[in-house]
Each structure stands twice: as C-alpha cells, then as structure tokens.
Amino acid sequence: MAPIHFGCLVFNYQAIDVIGPTDLLNSASKGLLEAISFYGPVDESTIARAPQFVFHHIGVTRDPVNLLTSSIAIVPTDTVDDCPELDCLLIPGPDLGDFELHPKFVDFTRRHVAAGKLLFTNCTGASVAAATGVLDGKKATVNNVEYMWVKDKYPKVKWTRDKKWIVDGNIWTASGAVAGMDMFSHWLKENYGLDVLIEGALGLDYEPRDSDGLFNVIPKRYDASGKQISTHVFKYHT
C-alpha cells in the first residue's frame, strides 16, 4: 500500500486543529501499530490494513510560524512551490477576526480541490476554505461559536449545525477542534476498519464520538453487574 501524502497548511492556527488529527492518524498507522506490538499483541491483519502517512506542513516559506495557541512555533517541511502532490489537505482554524489567507494558499487549495483530492477542514478552517470559493454550493459546518458570523459572511455555502462533521463529495468539514479528531476517526473506520481505528485510539486513550456527538463508535463494555466500564481493552504479552 502506497503511503498517503497528507498536507496541512501552516499559518497561525489553533494548535490542536492539526496536532490532534495528525497524532490520531499517526497512531493508527502501520509503523506505530508495529511498534506497539512490542508491548502487547496486535492482530497481524490489522497491521496489514493500516495506512501509512507522509505528513507535509506547508508554508509560503520555510520560516517558522508562531501558532495561535500554546506558544508553539512550527517550521514548515514544504512550501506551496515545492510541495509534492498530496492525497489529502487539512485546513486548520485561525482567529477569524482579521485573518486573510495568503494568495498562494488560495491557489494551492483551489487546485487541490479541482483535482478531486480530499480536503478536510477543522474548526474555523471551514471559513478559510469558504474564502477560497471551494465550498460554494457545498454543505459544510464550522465551529459553532463563530457559526452565525461565518454563515452571514459566506452565504453561498450550505452551512449546518446538525452534525459534528459533514461530508460533501471530496470535502470534509468538522466543527470544534476535537470534532476534527472524531471526523478523522470516522474516515479511518470507513477506509481501514474499526479495528485499525480502535488500535490507533487506544494508543492515545481516546474515545471518538459519532457525527451526533455521542460515544457510539467503539462498542461499549459492561462488567458482570451491568455497570459500564472503560471502552478500551489494554492487552499485554504474557
């Protein structure tokens, strides 16, 4: 299975918008599942179906960028001018007040979507995508705090708050930042299987929600008395 080239635009975004989803994807990758099998058993068929990722953090230049939150600076691995062809592109969320997407990012995003490749947005990233025009006529969601402001600013988009994430063709949009992790959990499950998702989420001790925001993705467990217990099962070599 060829590795998936996964790109993230680099500007002053909220850190978890990228770090959360990419850590989840990495935790569900073949390399990580092989690594954790040192500590406990992982089914070989699960490892065989797990994806492999090459992550690209794409800047206008390779100069470090101070993120919006957590006092983190990130150094781009690629620029819009030399980035290899991507399979997936993630647009994270900035503070929308005075944010303007660089024209090179606008062109990069439009070309990616026009090529039929997957576009993901997280949190206010959907507003950034809307500014490029790629969401015109599409159903999408965005962080619910900024929802009405974004809806009024980009009326050509079919905005909704009905679900935590929305899929319309090759475009996936998530609402609040952690909903982005839930969205990618769904993508992992649909493309690689529930067992791959469970192993990846287990490594983070994370339980994803469904598109309604409910904990119905991983089967619930109960003890002998019928009391609900922790969803994850940690196994060790004996």
Describe this structure in words.
- The protein has 238 residues and is an alpha/beta fold.
- The chain is built from 8 helices and 13 strands.
- Strands 5-2-1-6-7-11-10 form a 7-stranded mixed sheet. Strands 3-4 form a two-stranded antiparallel ribbon.
- The chain starts with a strand and ends in a 9-residue tail after the last strand.
- 39% of the residues are buried.
- The mean pLDDT is 97.
What topology does this entry show?
Layout: E1 4-9, H1 15-27, H2 30-36, H3 44-49, E2 53-59, E3 65-66, E4 73-74, E5 78-79, E6 88-91, H4 103-114, E7 118-121, H5 125-132, E8 139-140, H6 147-153, E9 158-159, E10 165-168, E11 171-174, H7 177-192, H8 194-204, E12 221-222, E13 228-229
Parallel strand pairs: 1-2, 1-6, 2-5, 6-7, 7-11, 8-9
Antiparallel strand pairs: 3-4, 10-11, 12-13
List keywords for this structure.
238 residues, alpha/beta, seven-stranded mixed β-sheet, two-stranded antiparallel sheet
Low-confidence stretches: none
Q: How many E strands?
A: 13
This entry's quaternary arrangement is: single chain
| Helix percent band | 25-40%
The gross shape turns out to be globular
Report on the biggest sheet.
Answer: 7 strands, mixed
Give helix and strand order, one letter per element, not per position: EHHHEEEEEHEHEHEEEHHEE
Secondary structure class reads alpha/beta
Mean pLDDT over all positions = 97
* Order of strands in the sheet with most strands: 5-2-1-6-7-11-10
- Helical stretch count? 8
Radius of gyration: 18 Å
CA(first)-CA(last) distance: 32 Å
Which strand-content bin applies to the residues?
15-25%
